[in-house]
Request: fold
Amino acid sequence: MTALKPVPVPSFDERTPAPGAGQKRLAILGATGSIGRSCAQVIAGSPDRFAVASVASGRDGAALARAALALGADFAAVADPAGYADLKSGLSGSGVEAAAGADAVVEAALRPADLVVSAIVGAVGLAPTFAAISAGRAVALANKETLVCAGSLVMAAAQQAGARLLPMDSEHNAIFQALGGRDPASIVRMTITASGGPFRQWSAERIASATRAEALAHPKWAMGPKVTIDSASLMNKGLELIEAHHLFAVPAERLAVVVHPQSIVHGFIAFVDGSLIAGLASPDMRTPIAHCLAYPERVHSGAVAPDLASLASLTFENADLVKFPALALAISALAEGGGAPTALNAANEVAVAAFLDGRIAFGAIVGLVARTLEAMRAAAEISIPATVAQALAIHHIARDRTTGLLA
Amino acid sequence: MTALKPVPVPSFDERTPAPGAGQKRLAILGATGSIGRSCAQVIAGSPDRFAVASVASGRDGAALARAALALGADFAAVADPAGYADLKSGLSGSGVEAAAGADAVVEAALRPADLVVSAIVGAVGLAPTFAAISAGRAVALANKETLVCAGSLVMAAAQQAGARLLPMDSEHNAIFQALGGRDPASIVRMTITASGGPFRQWSAERIASATRAEALAHPKWAMGPKVTIDSASLMNKGLELIEAHHLFAVPAERLAVVVHPQSIVHGFIAFVDGSLIAGLASPDMRTPIAHCLAYPERVHSGAVAPDLASLASLTFENADLVKFPALALAISALAEGGGAPTALNAANEVAVAAFLDGRIAFGAIVGLVARTLEAMRAAAEISIPATVAQALAIHHIARDRTTGLLA
Reply:
């Protein structure tokens, strides 16, 4: 359902300054979430640099209306039609166009803009992101599914359309900055760091029976519950390796994870000549967000670069694949390729939700994901997706399989 | 004195393969020193990538002849005419052209080449380096005097001639790689690391009376005695800040030194958005050398990138300007600008030589340099040099002043 406002949109919106020559127009998909709110902070810090053309979100119409007004957007789209009434009433009299439904979110992604921020959480974020990339738009990518579910398709579309992808999560952003446009051919190893999560120093036995509260107590980052659980199992690092493989065209065998509890070094690249370039930042999403929004220029983000002398010590240790089998499982899905990472991610979504609902133990998450992949392999359901629709079909089959295994 | 070989140089030298399309021609000034020998190792590891057009050195004709033959150079020039006989006899019958004198070294620098390696130690390296830069040649810079004595003139000449400068010492090379061509305007702070040298944990009193053997016992790097003493006093970090100021066009107040005893992180850059990019490598000169020789491509250097998980911990602390007053003095000379860094460096050369000769205490080095600068200021001898000749004149006046203060 796409609901267009009956009155014509004014070509100039008096609530925001006219975009100047150096002002970048943004489309923000996921404006009400954690990334969207941090985007708003960065934009507020440099109001002369950015103008917001459109905003979108998954469900919350009232919050989206507030975001649209605060950011001075011309168009606001909520994916879930149930959110339309709140969006419409929140924007009443503002002159901001309101719409709802999947097509409306795609429309928000395709409104004239210099950069599309893809920060809608989950598989619902894939279609609008793919549409923006296929249209040749520069995209700042925070939606994990875009690369995990359909990485090969997305990168091919980006290359064909000439769309630039800017990675917005801290690890890939650090690596993007460390790479600095260099040729991936001379890379010996590309490493993503993991804080190690709350269970870094726990035994495998204790981890297996960890409670919901224990798994949600992340030592470094404040994130949503799903991502926090993935950080405790290290599944998130596996998904990030899959993303890095696609984003940076680095083969799986040259990718690695190192545990770095301080979360200051987010990623690094070793080159054939012995050089190693590392990307660092305080654990504050405003830094990678500001980097993407302003790229190739830079703006103040409100976050300050880490002071290494004050930090005194940065420590590193190898990731323990026995204690954290989710990471090993993700690495093998990456090596398998095709639809395996898609299925892995979808099964993990269902398994983590089951853990958060108290239906399974923490230690059962990875087994459930592994059994889903086995069942799908046995049923020949893990094909190489040729379209985004096929990738999403594998995603939904995997979810159903995992749900079935839970019953 | 320039002694040209009487017989014509063959246009194709059968000892080396014909330079292929991807082969880079090098002129190596300082072929017999530590940097020159490491260059030879890197070249030997990628013989299809490099051809050596010319070599030069300061004094040792016999060693230069051996280097010329090993590298397959067509032309060899020794700066000190006293080395000519050894060079000539060492090259007898080889077909390699031998020459001596300052002009011959300039000729070596200007032989057709894709990259000039400037690694002759001391002020004698400045003129041929400046000649290569003024001729628009790409120059890999290991000679400290080029930027310390005449940084403004050198950078202006490089800009005018379109000459690319590649920094070859580990700190500036790390920063060059971390910068990756980005705009220096968005840099908040550029930091060079110091191992801290042998006296990092000593008291100021004990440092003042350190012996020659104690000062030469550097914990991380094997270098010549002059540089090792400068590493113990941290004067070398002051000189490196002066170089960084010119190389990267970063104002003095945005430059910093941090002590990092492991010597793995060599430099890093903090940007306005909170991003920090660091350049790391094992303490092995083959990495920055290979980086410069192959730039913008990369070759194997024989050195492997550091394994952070094996290193386990990297530590950082602020540099102590009270315990290491040479660093404070260099920072103030950088702030003063003009001929002050030139005079500082020259006075330090004489003072360090006096310490190595047992004539003064370690703690007297910095005082002698400071008194030289004071005497020169009082005599209005620290002008802003308008030519390299004027910079070298300030250099020699400072050396004479320091020598006079020692008498």
